[in-house]
Here is the input.
Amino acid sequence: MIDVTHAPPASCSAGTATAEVASGTIVRHERIAEGTWRLRVLAPNLAATTRPGQFAMVRLPGRFDPLLARPLAVYETALQADGGPPGPGEAAAARYADFIYAVHGKFTQALSRVAVGESVEFWGPLGNGFAPHPAGHLLLVAGGIGQTALLALGKERLGIARYGGPGVAAARADRVTLLWGCRTGSLFGDVEDFRDAGIDVHLATLDGSVGRKGTVVDLLDAFADGSAGPEASGERSVRIACCGPEGMMAAVSTWAARHGVPCEVSLETPMACGVGICFSCVAPVRDASGGWD
Amino acid sequence: MSSTVSTPGQIRHSGHPDVPEIDLAVDLGRLRLPNPVMVASGTFGYGKEMAGFVPVERIGGVVPKTITPLPRKGNRPWRTVETSAGLLNSIGLDNDGVEAFVEKQLPWLAACGAPVVVSIAGANQDEFIALASRLDGVPGIAALELNISCPNVSHGVDFGTDPEACRSVVAGVRNATSLPILAKLTPNVTDIVSVARGAADGGADGVTLVNTCLGIVVDWRRRRPLLGNGLGGLSGPAIKPIALRCVHQVRQKLDIPIVGVGGIMTIDDIMEFLVTGASAVQIGTANFADPTAAARLLDALPVAVAEAGAASVRDVVGTLRLDGPQATCGEENKRGDETP
Here is the structure.
């Protein structure tokens, strides 16, 4: 009966909640990989303001069990029910928000049975999102369902989509590469979203069924050693943005520290509210006393 | 010294053209609240986090997260896990201490206009008394709620399980402050009435019934508890009958005003607590599931009071009928149990 939905980026402590609890009609809902679903919801306020790496709390209306909302990263936004996000020069505001989730427990099982035309309730955007650091080469490193926090970031950095209000100044990257690891190949869904955006995609699986046999750290090693590596290409400013299970992010962070590459990770801890009132989503931090923040 | 608050009661039109306006004000001993819909400690932050969702100034009483004399880091993650229609938590009184509260959190709360009921917890009676003394005379505080029932800190439940210890700590705090006092009790006792009697004998203005029910959730495959602290406190709709039972038992034996809390999600839940004997209620876990819950429920209150045939909330409190035939599970009960 335990339900831990993956991929709420960064801290839940918004502190500046201006959000309503909105109800939005589902306009698309489809299975995109093994146990993995993609949901598109009419959500004008959320879609118009969300920034890469932010999330929303999503809940099933009219029921006490499951009781709480779950944090889901906003994977993508769209102007139309069947379209994509606004371009960098476009003034129109996105009206739809996409979420991708893996079915793990009671909530996600129930969500997967909600039909197009029905509604979900949600509030957001929440969390800090990724910091606007420009980069020569941005490496998106995803584990499991962690790609959900990274597509919008890659598209924004490449200058092909705009997230947030028209006045938001987005950081840029010259190149974006996705390194994505899953347990097995059947878990990769909508990889074309990244390729279509002009992002180089490298996959790894533990069982070798798709891509390189191994983990994203093996992909990072190959990246560093190969002709596309930072030394070989002479790139000055490689950065990593990472989202996935904690152990995977720890391994990526260790790799990044060893190679002197700045690395930003998207932390998650089970949370109840998403807005900073339940004090659940703390993570251990390194300070003099050791503690949680 | 601070004086007892005397906030005027809110009058809300019921929304029905043919029913009178409803007087929402309630009294908890020396504490008058403009309406009975409070928010529970630990489920509303320090108020300002919720300002975007809820007009905080309308809430009957805001109980911010419990404060302790010194900062506490709280327990290791995970700190919450959902259960069937419930939430198990072990936050561990994570807070920055009383001085930080007075300096950084209280000014915003005090300025927003809702009565502020400050929840305090000490490791022993002296700490409770020291906290009460420190807060006595601080502007913007309407009352104190003594958290003598937190299950997530060592010895946190002692005052709440021993009637004499409960009486003693309440009496000590009563001597240290002129503020009205609520004692928040734990349901994890054999006889809730005896502990509530201890609070009444110690001079409490009211009792808050109840804190969370002690529980545990385990992952059998990993053979581990899921919460970082092992045990936690269960809240949410799953515990509502237990909370109602505690309200009922205390109401039948004692005259002390009661604040009911435990699993309130709907206006029908609120009315059940009022009818059973609570003068006010606290919205807790519902704030997590729906950050607008307190405002939504407050909006629904006048119509429900009018439906009960009353002109004021006070006239509804404790009107449960215990003689004659048992109520049938008829139309009245259908609504609330199925939808929030």
